[in-house]
């Protein structure tokens, strides 16, 4: 099974300035340094395509010495805050012609090489069971409400059931999307019609999206409560 990793990493984060390459704990090149190291240790990944418009990231990646790393200088019109995920899906498909595409992000620093290997193995097994793709999730098993009331339980049956009895919901955490290049072409999507939902624990599934996320993640790593 040929697996190509697609790693989008644009310049100009609006919420956390330079979050992809600013120093993170003891890593002077931050999240991109961590993620490239993790991915390079996954033997099941044949190629890593880093798609970025950030010259600082490109300069670091060129000196990383990772043999299966391909750097793609992304056009600016595909690297703005207005760029849609649908446009990036088309972009990924133009870069990867065959095999399977593992889409991941540097903002999941605690998804380490061992975790990627387990995800790939689960994907291979899920294909044999009738699934056509995989995406990682974070489980929610608590009281979830919308404007019109509770979503995952019935208050006419029990107003406050034990949370352990509530049906778990899956929140897509964007750590990994894994499917074939054919699905990208046919569905114009990074998942198929029958995706395998792969729950991650709270630390593995952590996504750095806000300044406080960055600070919390550093504290977890510095306190040896998380592994990379």
UniProtKB/TrEMBL annotation:
InterPro entries attached to this UniProt entry: CMP-NeuNAc_synthase, Cytidylyl_trans, Nucleotide-diphossugar_trans
Superkingdom, natural source: Bacteria
Pfam families assigned to the protein according to its UniProt record, in alphabetical order: CTP_transf_3
Name of the protein described by the UniProt record: CMP-N-acetylneuraminic acid synthetase
Organism: Sporosarcina psychrophila (Bacillus psychrophilus)
